[in-house]
Structure formats: C-alpha cells, structure tokens
Amino acid sequence: VVTKAALVVALSMTVPAMRVPAHAAEPMQVVLIKRAGVTAYEEVAEEFAERCRVHARVLSFGDEGPRGLPLGPDVLLVTVGQEAIDAVAAHSAIGARIIPILAFHPPDALVGPPASPSPELILKVLAVARAPKLKVVGAVYGPRSAATLQQAAAAAHKLGLTLMASRVSSGAEAVRALRRLGPDVGALWLPGDPDVITPQVFQYALRLQLELGLPVAAATRQQVHSGALVAVDFSPRAAGRVAADLANRYLEGRTLPADVEKVDLYGGARVTVNATVARRLGVDVVALERMGARVE
Amino acid sequence: MNAVAYNRKPARRFRTRVFIYLLAGALTTSGVSGAAFYTRQVKFIEKDRARRANTLLTSLATQAELGAYAGDAALCDLPARRTFREEDVVLAGVYDARGREILRFSAPALGTPPPPPMALLKPLLHDPDAPPMRIAVEGWDDLWAPIVTSARSAAVAFSSEPGGASARRDVVGLARVGLSLKPAREQLAEVLSTGLWLTAFLLVLGAAASLLIARRISDPVLALANGADQIRAGNLDVRIDVASGDEIGLLAESFNLMAAELRDTMAKLESLNRGLEGEVSRRTDEIRRSAEFTQVLNAPIGATGEASRVADTITTDDSSRHDGEDLKRMLDTACSSLQAATGVPAAALFLTVEESVEFELQLAAQSGGDRELFGSPPSQPQIAAGAPLVEPTRALVPVLFRREPQGVLVLVDPAGVSPHAIEFAARAAGQLAIAISNARAYAALQHLAKELTERNAALVNQRDQLQEMNRLKSEFLANVSHELRTPLNAILGYTELIAEGIYGETTGEQREALAGVEESSRNLLTLINQILDLSKVESGKVEIYVTDVVMHDVAQHVAAEAQVQLRDKPIKLTVVAPKLIKIKTDAARVQQIVTNLVSNAIKFTDRGTVTIQVSSTKDGGCAIAVRDTGIGIRKEHQQIIFEEFRQIDGSSTRRYAGTGLGLAIARRFAQMLSGALTVESQLGIGSTFTLNLPAEPRQPARPPAPPPSARISATMPAVRPPPAAGRAK
What we know:
The structure holds 2 protein chains of 2 kinds.
Chain A: H1 2-14, E1 29-35, H2 39-51, E2 56-61, E3 75-80, H3 82-90, E4 97-101, H4 119-129, E5 136-141, H5 146-159, E6 162-167, H6 171-181, E7 187-189, H7 199-212, E8 216-218, H8 221-226, E9 230-233, H9 236-252, H10 260-263, E10 270-273, H11 275-281, H12 285-290, E11 293-295
Parallel strand pairs in A: 1-2, 1-3, 3-4, 5-6, 5-7, 7-8, 8-9, 10-11
Antiparallel strand pairs in A: 9-10
Chain B: E1 2-3, H1 14-63, H2 65-70, H3 73-84, E2 89-96, E3 101-106, H4 118-126, E4 133-137, E5 140-151, H5 154-159, E6 168-180, H6 182-232, E7 238-239, H7 247-304, H8 307-315, H9 325-342, E8 346-355, E9 358-367, H10 380-385, E10 389-390, E11 394-401, E12 404-412, H11 419-499, H12 508-539, E13 547-550, H13 551-562, E14 571-576, E15 582-585, H14 587-603, E16 608-616, E17 622-628, H15 662-672, E18 676-682, E19 686-693, H16 708-714
Parallel strand pairs in B: 1-7, 14-16
Antiparallel strand pairs in B: 2-3, 2-6, 4-5, 5-6, 8-9, 8-12, 10-11, 11-12, 13-15, 16-17, 17-19, 18-19
Helix pairs in contact in B: 1-3, 1-6, 6-7, 7-9, 7-11, 8-9, 8-11, 11-12, 11-16, 12-15, 13-14, 14-15
C-alpha cells in the first residue's frame, strides 16, 4: 500500500495539475474509474456523468483490477476510492490527468474532493453521544491516515478529549491494538483507512462495542448499517458533483482550486446513527439529532 | 368312548426335535439381533463422535477467527478454554496461518504433544474448504481444521454492501482439538454389555418359548398317533381329547369324526354282508338254473345236427313237417326247466309264425298244464314292447332277438308269478331268443345251400349239352366240308381233263363254259377250305408243328405263289427279307397267313406296289409286313375285317369277291402261334398288315387232347386240295 501511494505521488508530480494544459482546446477523453459493485461508487459515477460537460466513460473493475485503461495526455481520469487510484498508479498511467476522490489525500500531490469530513466533527459527535462521560477516544490508524490523525489529536485537545491512537501497519496489528485500547478508552474511532481498517478490525470493534459498551464511530454510513453506532461522511453524490465541477474547470482551462474543501462544494457532511445500537448503549439520540444527525 | 392317554414314547421324540429346532432358531435370532445391535451402536457411536469432533472444531475455528487473524493469544484464550473444558477434550489449540502455535490447552497426561509435520498441515493451510484432518494418537484423536475468514476488499467492507463483490476466503489459522477415545470406549463397552445381556435374555426367553411351543405341538400330535394306533387295533370307540382351537384341534376333531363315521360304516358293512350272502346264494342258484337252462337250449341242436328239421319245426306251422323231434324235445325240456327254475305250476312257449308282415303265435311247448290254462297269446304290440306283462295268474315274457319278436314265454301260477320268476324268465327269454334265431338262420342257410346245389346241377347239365352241340356243329362242318370238297375236286379234275381234250376235241364255246365251271368250282373249293380251316380251329383240330423257319424262304415262297395273281395287274411285288432272320414256328401256318395277306393286297390294289418286308423284333422274334398301295380301309372298319364272314362292302354288287373268312382265319392262326396280326391303313393310300411272331410260341407245341368230336373226325381221311388250289380270301 505504501509503495502504491508513493507511486501515486510520483505520478502526480509529473502532471501540471494546477495549470490549464496547453492543448486544452483539443477534445479530451474523460474516464471515471471505480470498483464495481459498490453502491456509493455507483452514485458517485452517476452524479459525475450527469454533471460532466463532456461524455464521461465509466470503467468499472473487479478483483482483477481495471483492464484497457486509457493513457495519454488527452485523457482525464477520475478515480473513485483508494483501489482505483492504486490501480492507476500500478498501471503507470503516465501523462494522464487525475482527479482522485479519496478519503485521505496525499499532501500536496493531487487535487480532488475529499471523501471524509474533518476529524473534529467526528470527535464532536462522539462527545455528544457519550456526553459527559467520554474522556478518552481510542483510534487505530495507518500511514495513509497519519495526517488526519494529527488533525484529530488537535481537535480532541480542543474538545477536551484525549485521543489514544495506535499506529499500525496491518489489520492484524489493528486488532491487537484495539484489544489493548479497549479497556482504557470510552469510545472508538475507526478512520476510513482501508489499509488497516479491515473487515476483521471492524468486526472486532463491533465486538468491543458489544462487550465493553464502547461506541464505535465508523467511516461510512454503510458501516452504521452493519452495527457501528455512528458515522460521519460526505454524500457520494456530493463527491461526484464536486469531481464533475473540477473536471469541468479543467476542461475549460481554468485553474483548479488548491483547497477544494474551502470551496465548500459538498454542502456539509452527514451524520448517521444506528438507532438500535444507540438504544442498547444508552446514547442520547436527541442531542445527536440536534446536530443534524440522521437516526436510521 | 375312551379318551386317549399320551402313553407312547417314540424313539426320537418329536417334542425334543421341535424344541431343538426352535431353540436353534431362538439362538440364531438372538445372536443375529445382538450382533446387529452392537454393530449399529458402534456405527452410531462412531458417527456421533465424528459429528462431535466436527462441531468442536467448527466452533473453535469460528470463535478463534479473530484471534487467529490477529495472532493474538488473548483473543484465542476464551474459545480455546471453552473447548478444552469439554469432558472428552484433552487438547484445544489455535495456530496461525504459518502453523505456529498461538495458544494451546492440553491435559497434563499428554505432556507437550508436538505439532504434526507441516507437510500434513499444508493442505489445511492452503484450502479453506479442506475437511477436518484426523490423526490417530494413542488414546485420543488429534483433529485439525482450518480457521477461515473473509477477505473482502476495503471498499466493499466499508460499504457493507450485502450484494457486493463476493468475499475471498482466506485461511488465517488452524484449530486443533484432541478428542479422547475413553468415552467412546466406555460407550462401546456399555453397548457390548447391554448387547450380551439382551442376547442372553432373548435366548432364555426363546428357550422357554421353544419348550412351551414344543409341548403344545407334540402333545396333541402324540394323542393323534395313539388314537390312530387304537383305531388300527380295532377300537373304533376311541376319542381324542384335544381341546385346542388351532389346526391340531381341528385335526383331532376331524379324527374323531372320522372314527365315528368309520364305526357307522363298519356297522353298515356288516349288515350289508349279511344281506349279500343271502343274495349271493340266491343268485348262485339262479345262475345254476340258468346254466341248466342254457344247456337245455344248446343240447338238441348240437347233439343231433338235424338243424333243418329243427328249423322247419320253428319256422312253419305245417303240421306235416313237424318231424323235428329234437326241437320239440328241446323246447319241452326248456319249458320243464323253466318251470322248475321259476317254481311256477305251469309254463309254455309260444313261437311266432310269420304271415307276411303280421305274425301269429302258436304254442310250441308246454309243461305242467293244459293248453287252456295258458290262455290266449298276447297281441303283437304287447310283444314288440319287450316288457313282461304281468297278470294276476300268469306272466307273459316276450322273446325278442334284436328287437324282433320270436315268441313269448308264459308262466302260470294261480297265486301270482313272483318277480324272481319273471326276472329269471326274462333272462331265459334272451337266451331262448338267440337259440331260436340261430336255429331259424341255420335252417334258412340250409335251404339256400340246397337250392344252390340244385341250380349248379342244372347248369352243369346245360353246359354239357352245349358242349355236345358245339362238338356236333364242328363235326358237322368238318364232315360237310370234307364231303363237299371231295366231289368238288373230282369236278375240277374232270373239267381240266375235258378242257385239255382228253375226252375229245372241244369247241371254243365249250372251253369257255369249262373255264366258268372251273372258276366257280375253285371259288367254291376256296370257300370250303376256309370253312374247313375255321371249323378245325374252333374244334381244336389244328395242329402246330414248330421247326426252325427261315423267314426269307417263307417270303420268297409266298411271292412266287402270288405271281399268278399279278399277271393281269400293273403291280410290282417286292420282297425285303434278310436271310438271317430265323425263328421257331410253324412254317405252313405262317405261309398260309402271309399268302392270305399278299392275296388280299393284290386283290385290293389296282396299280402300284405290294411289298413283303421281314424284320427282326427286339424280343428276338420277327415282323412280316405286307404293304400295298391299294384302296385302304377306314379307321372304323379296321377291326371288322377280322371278324368271320364280314366284309366292308357287304352289298350284292360289291366289287371284290370273297368269303370274309381269310383274315379271321389268319388272325386265329397268328394267335395260335403266340403272335398278333395288326393293320394300319389310310383310305385311298394303302394298307399295311403286320404279322408279329415271337422267337418261339409260348403255347405247347402240340395242342391238348382233342375233344371227342375231334377224335371222331380224326378217324376220317383228310382230303388235301390239289397244289394249284388257292387259299385266297
């Protein structure tokens, strides 16, 4: 994973992402690459295709990875998810322009809409959910999400919480870390880092949520449906809309914004709460609803 | 009645055999049942043990999934400990994906069991679907199973799509369970013990049941056997006391019924025997009397042989012919015997006397009474019915032979005729009918023989008369011919002398008249000769002298004689006759036949040829064919010409003269020579007469002795015709 990320960074260095290409007037081919079979990604693709000014080709792939990947300077790639950007990097798509939609962006590499909101919002939701008992929030993270965890640590401090985060390199290590953190924390936060937050880690976190009463804050709304107490994420359609806007800008020869978040193209993150789990844990749902949370 | 006691003791007791059979069956059944029970239980225990091992392994693998995934002994502790707590588990452990031990609980007795070689574990580590592996160790089973987890992609995992991409399954570790064999062995021992007890119980139960069944079967059978013995010994009052309602009971009841019926039957049989003895005695007496009666019937006819007189006696009422004293005696004796046998005071026999279709009964014999005592005879329909007519004082028994009335027997008894007497008379009537019928048939036969004898005598007389007449006719013909020919020869001789001028010169007219006299005389002589020949043939006076004859010479001789006839006709006579053909025959007769044929050929041929052809035949004989180109003969006339005095043209104006005897005589001669004379002819073209002769005549060379007429004629001197006399037809 680290190797792939480094490769992505190297690729992105070769692309003058912030500038309008010299041959912008020439027709460009727009291709959206995503993993098949994920509903959120489908919503992203639909929204992007509707809003992109040119016809966007959608390339879905399975476990074997994408095939027939278009290459060249007249291609604009929109990758959805970590697997898509990893696949493009592995394919050495030199010369292509890339707009990634990722949970955790490599710093100063590619410009694209983030898939996860700020850690401060997540910690705030956990604080409200366990108020006033929550003092310590435990988290595991990998190399890709290290920057986000730094932001989270600052936000926790600002909220009067303690963030006990363990850096791990694999899911197995994450499980062991969670077992160690479990007795010492009042809630768990699982960032959307697929390198370390494997299904087994998520499963163990749910087990801790059940055995120890630790509220689990997950990365996606679907994880709430699987048993996590709460999740804070952006709408897939919003991500697709932002990506389409960026693509249109690029196609028009305009400069992409350096900080997409500041553009506030998303229209705000969404908070989803599992009503059943909340009832079992004794979480104040009303307070969360006041924050705009949607109880499902 | 006597109830039967079971007191017989056979050499081989049925009860013991039944008991042994049933006991063997019970033993076999018990053994098989025990074995089946044990086998089934063993299989059940093994299956249960395999199921339990699978359950324990699956449970441990499921619970230790996260522990194995994380390689964390703490996470594996609880599931492994829970598994180890099971009574029959001596080991529970979790191993990572490389086969390294994460956690293990084992019984102290096992010490530290080493893990199996990696070669054995590799299939489990690489195949998530590999079945559990079992390694047999002393006292326990070492069971291994893969710990499998799903490896869904992060995106899918985060999206938690239920219908997302299929998850890949990875082996993240191994679950190990040591299952002790002790509980299973204890269970097996318990099963074995139970099976043995069950078998023993079934055996005892079977033995008791066998004994009981054997007794229940054998006792009634013994009772039946004893009952049968007593019946055989003559004790028919025996009763078998078997009260069971089963088949044996039914058999005993049937046995008792059979004994009772046998008893009744024996009583009836004794009664019948007594009656039968009297009946046999009576019948014997009847047979004896019947035999005597039959002897009486047979005696007169066989003894005297005067059947005709007997027949006369019983077939006619002519008193003048009642001289058959034998029959009278027989009938009288028969009546006497019948009277004695039947015991009636009087008996009589009436016989039928046929009068055209109707018949009349007349008294033929009587015994013990006057004629008036027997009353009037019955009518014809009463007899024809065949049944005895019983009247108060007499009985009339018809005598029928093949339903034809022969007469009637009359039994008279003022006290009434007994049925036995009527029955005896009926049987006697049958025999009497045969005797009377035989006598009548014999009489008819005698009459017929007598008539035949008389007719034969008349026929013999007629035959003798005819023979005599025929002889006289032939003799007459011969004599007449002889007497005619003698003066005719004188006429011819004197006519020739006068014509030659011996008695003086004759004028032309005189010579013509003399020529007419000569010709008519010769014709008459020819006729007479032929009649004479025919009469000789018929009277048997012709004699055959067989010698070796060269047929060529015969043909040449005939041709030479025929030259006289050819003088005034344009006919060429040809002889075709090989010199080597020679047969045994009568040369004179052959020459006579051929001369006749050639003469006819010349006579009926105006111009052309006449051929005499001699050839040999296959049987060694020869054929002499005389072929002409004359007028020919119609087909329908070809047989007529061989009959005596027959000519085709019989009118008074016929063209060709002749007697009609030549060919008839020629055929007779040919037959006498064992040959045949045939003709083939076509009208207007010509005729061919063929004489076929055998190599030698089959008949005796000399005919048998001539009849008396021949003897008479033989004494007369034969008059030979002069050499010039022809023998034409």
